[in-house]
Automatic annotation (TrEMBL):
It comes from the Bacteria. The keyword Glycosyltransferase does not apply. InterPro entries: 6-blade_b-propeller_TolB-like (IPR011042), NHL_repeat (IPR001258). It comes from Pandoraea terrae. NHL repeats lie at residues 123-157, 165-204. The keyword Transcription does not apply. This is Serine/threonine-protein kinase PknD. PROSITE patterns: NHL. It is an enzyme of class 2 (transferase). Signal peptide: none annotated. One of its GO terms (molecular function) is protein serine/threonine kinase activity. The gene is pknD_2. Its EC number is 2.7.11.1. Pfam families: NHL (PF01436).
Length: 285
């Protein structure tokens, strides 16, 4: 734990020996005072921040300095819950209430959909999915957490390959798999929200280990150095080493950090709810 050093322009927090400046009002929104309903965030290969909204514009794009670059609308997404940008800068968006995952080009052109819109299925894809990630070999993994308690694996062409999980608290079971991320070795980190943990699996769905001591965790991301960052509803941000050892914690400044991502410089971005916005944890040391 680390005390917060108050400054007029920002908060300073630490995770282990690393210090961060927390900027809450750094984005230059196209309509001042209107931050929409932010749900999640992701960065592309140029560290451009993509903000997922629940409503149109579905995506708003900002430069690393916070300058507004543009947005795009789509009627395919009505309840954006999770977002991931892969190595090809394709944008994957989870529409939780329409039971689909949509894939878009970097400029917002629709390319592929997983699941059948408005056709929820128990135990199979999808029933209110929550998040998506893509491994280096192009495999797509979706956490299916509000109606189901599963993770689904898809081939790069969108073909369903496998499903694992089920309701419960045992290793490999879930009580709302709310988020998913790819680790340094292409294992998968799954936020098991109501069980207060993050479980790790191989790409084939074999349980590896887990991180506990979390209060209703909501999101997870992994830095290039293997640090694992988890936001929960204390609210706080926790950092873990590759072996699951806790490195440090600090509090966050929205009621819920619903989504999280990290850029190539080590800056961490949290999609805040209540109030809506994006907090930037800019690394200082």
């Amino acid at each position: 734990m680390c005390a917060i050093e108050a400054r007029s322009e920002a908060h300073i927090v630490c995770l282990g020996e690393r210090r961060y400046r927390v900027d809450r009002d750094w984005l230059r929104w196209p309509t001042p005072g209107d931050r929409g309903f932010v749900s999640h965030v992701a960065v592309n290969s140029r560290d451009e921040l993509h903000v997922l909204n629940r409503g149109n514009p579905v995506i708003q794009i900002f430069s690393p300095s916070g300058r507004f670059l543009g947005d795009w609308h789509t009627n395919l997404v009505t309840h954006g819950h999770g977002i991931h940008i892969d190595a090809r800068d394709r944008i994957f968006i989870v529409d939780s209430d329409r039971h689909c995952v949509h894939v878009f080009s970097p400029t917002g052109q629709h390319q592929l959909s997983l699941g059948r819109r408005d056709r929820p299925v128990y135990g199979r894809p999808f029933n209110h999915p929550t998040d998506v990630t893509v491994t280096r070999n192009g495999h797509i993994y979706v956490s299916d957490g509000y109606g189901n308690s599963h993770v689904h694996r898809f081939a790069a062409d969108g073909r369903h390959v496998a499903t694992w999980g089920g309701a419960g608290a045992a290793p490999g079971a879930f009580a709302n798999p709310h988020a998913i991320a790819t680790a340094w070795d292409d294992t998968l980190l799954v936020v098991d929200r109501e069980n207060g943990r993050v479980q790790r699996f191989t790409g084939e769905g074999v349980y590896v280990d887990e991180i506990r001591d979390l209060y209703l965790p909501t999101a997870v991301t992994v830095g290039e150095d293997g640090w694992i960052y988890v936001s929960d509803q204390c609210p706080r941000l926790s950092a873990y080493a590759r072996d699951g050892r806790l490195i440090g914690r600090c509090r966050t400044f929205g009621a819920v950090g619903h989504g999280i991502t990290i850029d190539s410089t080590g800056d961490v971005y949290i999609a805040d709810m209540m109030p809506s916005g994006v907090s930037r944890f800019r690394r200082m040391s």
